[in-house]
Design brief:
Elements lengths: L21 H19 L7 H4 L5
Length: 56
């Protein structure tokens, strides 16, 4: 998975107006979902022969 955080920003000119920027809100939600998914990934341990670099 590639998070691709290019930055999330919203535009508003009046207080509270930011909630009307649905594109920014959706981008923030998607970024949050991707970050949560990254936390669920379990990395597989390397096999012993790669860690120890043993040649038989």
């Amino acid at each position: 998975m590639i998070v691709a955080n290019r930055g999330v920003c919203g535009i508003a000119f009046e207080e509270g107006e930011i909630i009307k920027d649905t594109e920014a809100i959706n981008a923030a939600k998607k970024l949050g979902e991707r970050i949560k998914e990254l936390g669920k990934i379990r990395l597989k341990p390397e096999p012993d022969h790669l860690i120890n670099n043993k040649c038989h």
